[in-house]
Structures are given as C-alpha cells and as structure tokens.
UniProtKB/TrEMBL annotation:
InterPro entries: Adenylosuccin_syn_GTP-bd, Adenylosuccin_syn_Lys_AS, Adenylosuccinate_synth_dom1, Adenylosuccinate_synth_dom2, Adenylosuccinate_synth_dom3, Adenylosuccinate_synthetase, P-loop_NTPase
Residues involved in GTP binding: 12-18, 40-42, 309, 335-337, 417-419
EC number of the protein: 6.3.4.4
Catalytic activity: IMP + L-aspartate + GTP = N(6)-(1,2-dicarboxyethyl)-AMP + GDP + phosphate + 2 H(+)
Protein name: Adenylosuccinate synthetase
Function: Plays an important role in the de novo pathway of purine nucleotide biosynthesis. Catalyzes the first committed step in the biosynthesis of AMP from IMP.
Keywords on record: Cytoplasm, GTP-binding, Ligase, Magnesium, Metal-binding, Nucleotide-binding, Purine biosynthesis
Pathway recorded for this protein: Purine metabolism; AMP biosynthesis via de novo pathway; AMP from IMP: step 1/2
Places the protein is found: Cytoplasm
GO molecular function terms listed in the Swiss-Prot or TrEMBL record: adenylosuccinate synthase activity
Length: 432
C-alpha cells in the first residue's frame, strides 16, 4: 500500500512540518530520510479551548506529534545523539508519547569533530562560505561518502567503535591541528561521548528498511518527510550552495530503503512566495520594502538558527523544476495569507539571462546567478483569508492567484495554507 513522500519545492521552510502534521492522523509511519538537525519544522496544533501549542522539531520527524504514528529516523539521516535525546526529553516533558520511535542502524552519527570542522571551514571560506547551520551536517555526509563515517550500529560494539574513531581521527586531527590550528580530538573522549548514549539508544535501533517494507506489505501507509528542499539537494540544487544530502523524492527511497516502485505519491510543498536562508543565488530575491514586508508578515526567521530569511516573489521556474525532478503529484501551496493586502502580486514566469529568455532552469550555475526574473503581475486581494476552509471561501483574486500559479507550476495544487495552524488549510483535492 502507499508510500507517500513530502518534499520541499524551493529552498526549505515551505511548511513541510505543518503538511506532515496535517496528514499525520491518516498514516501509520512518518520517516525522516535525509538531513539532520539542520532542519527546523514548526508545527502549530490548535487545542480544544481555542489556544494553540507550538512545537519546533529539528532531528525528529514531525509525525512524532501524531498519536499512534510510528516515527522513524531512516538510514539517510545524520544523527546528533545529544540533540536526539534533548528533543525527545523536551517532548516527553510536554506530554508527547515518543515511545514508538525507531532509528536505523545504518544512519550515521555526527561526532564533535565534525561540528567543529563545519564551523571553522565556514570561517576559513570567508566570502565564499555556504552559510551552513553549523551543525556538522556537511562533514558527516562527507565522511559517509569517504567511507570513514561512524554509524549508529557502531555504538554497540566498543571495539569496532574505537577502531573506527582511531582511523578517522588519524585524518581529522591532521586537519584540525595542521590546517586549522585547533586542538586535536582524543579517541578516548570521542568514544566515551558516543558510548554514553548506547543503552538509551539500543531499544530504538532496528533495520528500518525491513520494518517499513513489511508495513507496506501489510497495507499500512508510510509518509516520507524531507528535510531541506529541492534547490538545496546536493545533486539537483544550486550547488555548492546546498546541503549535503538528497532532499528530493529519489532521496526518499535511498534514505529509507523503500524501493522507487513503491512510492505512489509525491507531495511538493511550495510557499506562495520564496525564501532562502544562507548564501547562494536567488533570482526573485527582494532587497526592498516588499522583502521586509514578506519577512515581517510571514515571520520569516529561521527555526534552527534564528537568521532572517531572504524573501522574494513566487518563482514558477523553480516550481516547475521541482515538479519535474521529484515527480510531484500534488502541491500544497502554503502561506497564501501572507500575500493579503498587496495591490499586485508579481510571479516570476521565466528568466532573462543576458538578454536571452529561459523558461527552464539554466544549465549553468553562472547563468542562474545572472538570471533576472520576468514577472507577470496578478491582482491582489485585501480580505482576511485566514478563516477560509473551501476554495470558494477565498476572494476571487486569491482564487485566480492559486489557479494561475497552478497552471505555471507543473502539478495540481491540492491544498492551500491560510495560517500556521493545522485547521487553517483549504483542501481542494483530498491528499490521501
Ligand atoms: P519546514 O521547514 O518546511 O517545516 O517549514 P518551517 O516550519 O521552517 O517554516 C514554515 C513556517 O510557516 C512555520 O512557522 C509554520 O508554522 C508557518 N506556516 C506553515 N503554513 C503556513 C500558512 O499557510 N500560513 C502561515 N501564515 N504560516 C504558515
Ligand atoms: P528545513 O528542513 C532552510 C541551508 C543552510 C545553508 C545550506 C547548507 O527547515 O526546510 P547545512 O547546515 O545543511 O550544511 O547548510 O542549507 N539549510 C536550510 N535552509 N531550511 C532548512 O531546513 C535548511 N537546512 C539547511 O542555511 O544555506
Ligand atoms: Mg524549516
């Protein structure tokens, strides 16, 4: 039965957490398949008394908030064990049942030296920095590809763990001390820090690929939730200004052990405008009062680092690209409410690169850096849309905006977000 992927169609922070939460009651498993605690998902859950509870999740899949759902950290994730237990403890303190969590034995762990290397590499890069979250994500994935990474299963075999740490530190300590002039890490301390989590971790660890495929065999529903997004994907994003994992629907398979043929729906989350955190090209970026307006009304500050997000208009070229790369079957258009009160709403339909029109992503990154947006100007609306629950509840111009963006973006828009809470959603086509 169905495996469904939720992916970000832009540069992250599209509202994947809210979308996962929205579907949480209809699925049996929610799997994080890539990234680590670089992600930041804010989920707002309305309470019966009218108040709301806000959760910020980084390493854990957002599905952990849905009662009865089994949350899974897949093999494609990089796990900071200290953050894992901090996040679990914080949820337990708020009454969330986290007992079902499963962690892949093949996921890699983020060691202290990789957090250090992430931060100092950025400092050394100076103006060429990526603007990473400084969580050690890139260096840990680099170790995985270099075949010198430490995996979750290694924590349960002190001898093997010590051998692996000795091997990796032979190399890392050269880098730390000779290139960066930092104190070398010791094998004993590194091993001790990792071993400290072993007993608490042990009951959660299993072959998550087997678990998920057996669940699918039984007809259960598995939701695969991406961290980051298409334009931050290491293969398909704006390299080198990307994260170091596969955030697209292909990554949902490699990062979970679910084969591609079992994936029958891909839900792309796309914001009604665009944001980006960190460095890198961003054609529709606004450095004027409109950018400030979107940041303020949309509360566009990073959930993980608190950095102000760069803001710009909707870019249909990248939405189409995301639809193609991921095989998006449905889009969820989020934060439409943030666009209320604009006379005209510009939407980028193509780029001008040095006098040449591009309807698709330019082949060369240099051209993408030079891309000037070609805008179509849609009529705005002034009515408060936060209480809209059906498409017909939306003002006519908001409906036109959704329809126009849908026609440009390569897949149907099945739901529209009109506020942060789960209820503030207009459903046009049932997602599951
Ligand atoms: P993620 O990383 O993709 O899960 O997204 P983030 O949680 O980092 O950022 C999305 C932000 O927008 C969160 O603060 C959400 O609560 C909020 N949000 C999600 N959907 C909507 C919406 O439709 N309208 C408004 N106003 N806020 C939304
Ligand atoms: P969610 O899941 C937005 C960005 C960083 C930086 C680049 C590389 O909340 O959408 P990294 O620490 O991953 O090596 O940083 O990627 N980045 C994100 N931007 N949302 C995220 O996650 C991000 N995760 C990483 O800002 O530019
Ligand atoms: Mg986020």
């Amino acid at each position: 039965m169905p495996a469904i992927a939720i992916i970000g169609a832009q540069w992250g922070d599209e509202g994947k957490g809210k979308a996962t939460d929205l579907l949480g009651s209809r699925v049996d498993y929610v799997v994080k398949f890539n990234g680590g605690n670089n992600a930041g998902h804010t989920v707002v859950i309305g309470q019966p008394d009218g108040s709301s509870e806000k959760y910020a999740l980084h390493l854990l899949p957002s599905g952990i908030l849905s009662p009865g759902v089994t949350p899974v950290i897949g093999n494609g994730v990089v796990v900071d064990l200290a953050v894992l237990f901090e996040e679990l403890d914080a949820l337990v303190a708020r009454g969330v049942d986290v007992s079902l969590l499963k962690v892949s034995a093949n996921a890699h762990v983020i060691a202290d030296y990789n957090r250090t290397i992430d931060k100092i590499t950025e400092r050394f890069l100076g103006s060429r920095r990526i603007g990473t979250t400084g969580r050690g994500i890139g260096p840990t994935y680099a170790d995985k590809m270099n075949r010198i990474g430490i995996r979750v299963q290694d924590i349960f075999d002190e001898k093997i763990l010590t051998q692996k740490v000795e091997g990796v530190l032979d190399l890392k300590n050269q880098i730390l001390s000779k290139i960066y002039n930092r104190r070398a890490a010791t094998v004993e301390q590194t091993v001790e820090e990792l071993l400290a989590y072993a007993e608490r971790l042990r009951p959660m660890v299993c072959d998550t690929g087997l678990l998920l495929n057996q669940a699918l065999d039984r007809g259960e529903t598995v939701l695969l939730e991406a961290g980051q997004a298409t334009l931050l994907d290491v293969d398909h994003g704006t390299y080198p200004f990307v994260t170091s994992s596969s955030a697209t629907s292909g990554g949902a398979c490699t990062g979970s052990g679910i084969p591609p043929m079992r994936l029958n729906q891909v839900i792309g989350i796309v914001k009604a405008y665009t944001t980006r955190v960190g460095e890198g090209p961003f054609p529709t970026e606004l450095e004027d009062e409109f950018g400030e307006h979107l940041r303020k009304i949309g509360a566009e500050y990073g959930t993980t680092t608190g950095r102000p997000r760069r803001c710009g208009w909707y870019d249909a070229v990248i939405a189409r690209y995301a639809a193609r790369v991921n095989g998006v079957t449905d889009f969820v258009l989020t934060k439409l409410d943030v666009l209320t009160g604009l006379e005209k709403v510009p939407v980028c339909v193509a780029y001008d690169v040095d006098g040449v029109r591009h309807d698709e992503m330019p082949v060369n990154q240099t051209d993408f850096h030079h891309a000037q947006p070609i805008y179509e100007y849609l009529d705005g609306w002034w009515e408060d849309i936060s209480e809209a629950r059906t498409f017909e509840d939306l003002p006519v111009n908001a409906q036109r905006y959704v329809e126009a963006v849908e026609a440009m973006s390569g897949a149907r828009i099945s739901a529209v977000g009109v506020g942060p809470s789960r209820a503030a959603t207009v459903v046009r086509h049932e997602l599951i």
